[in-house]
């Protein structure tokens, strides 16, 4: 696990969250570095959304510390919290667009945290922001839909609008809560690829909850597995086979001891792979010098 890193953008320590008698998060330790693309993987109710909501201050912990972009989130005054939220964008399973507004207006609302007062209608936004919104729409491949009502678009298109809206915030962190759970496989692939490309273009740190193992494997740099509000797995996706991941995922409801055993097995197999790779490399070098 990444416990000692130079400049993490997210650092959670001993985080617990109770909703009445339900403990949604339990002793969560998580460190994410700038530019990392992390998948939160877990069954329904494992605490993925609650964890994401702590990262932009929508929830405050019952215990523990939440530090994001160098800020102690629970310690922020309401005004500081609002300013902080402008640096973290979020996209959701249900897109959360305003259905009766045009696509362009929906994208523009992403800039509201940087503007004073409400904006009603396109005319109320500065020209530079309209140009930025159209540029982002072009980036997500929907420029020609700018003046259509948002509810006339397909689910995949609506999620791409939500991504363009998130970019209007000029965020440093992008949080995505099950962004493709309502989409068909083809649109899911498209949206996930887009998030990855945009994260690279803008140097974003991404934390994304998913429940599809295939997508998680082919997509993130790192998988963090949650079970009953606890981090039970934290591993790079490189070298993790679908079979092993499915096994872990299928056994997420097993005991912590079993999961510990699976995780150490995974670590061992990674070490073996690395050792084999380095032996292979040295053989190649020796072969090359003959
Ligand atoms: N506002 C709330 N009030 C009461 N209980 C809550 C609240 N939010 C979450 N919970 C509870 O906390 C636990 C974790 O929920 P959470 O939504 O974080 O899980 P999840 O992994 O995101 O699930 P899903 O994939 O179904 O969205 C669940 O038992 C849930 O019922």
TrEMBL record:
Transmembrane annotation, as ranges: none
- Taxon lineage: Bacteria, Bacillati, Actinomycetota, Actinomycetes, Micrococcales
Q: Which residues form a coiled coil?
A: none
Q: Which GO terms describe its molecular function?
A: ATP binding
One Pfam family, short name: ABC_tran
Protein name as it appears in the record: Phosphonate ABC transporter ATP-binding protein
Q: Which residues form the ABC transporter domain?
A: 10-253
Q: Which PANTHER family match?
A: AMINO ACID IMPORT ATP-BINDING PROTEIN, PHOSPHONATES IMPORT ATP-BINDING PROTEIN PHNC
Q: Membrane: is it a keyword of this entry?
A: yes
Output the Gene3D superfamilies linked to this UniProt entry: P-loop containing nucleotide triphosphate hydrolases (3.40.50.300)
Where does the secretion signal sit in this chain? none
CDD domains per UniProt? ABC_PhnC_transporter
Q: Which domain of life is it from?
A: Bacteria
Alphabetically sorted, this entry's keywords are: ATP-binding, Cell membrane, Membrane, Nucleotide-binding, Translocase, Transport
Could you tell me which species this protein originates from? Arthrobacter methylotrophus
Task: Please name the InterPro entries in this protein's record.
Answer: AAA+_ATPase, ABC_transporter-like_ATP-bd, ABC_transporter-like_CS, ABC_transpr_PhnC, MetN_ABC_transporter-like, P-loop_NTPase
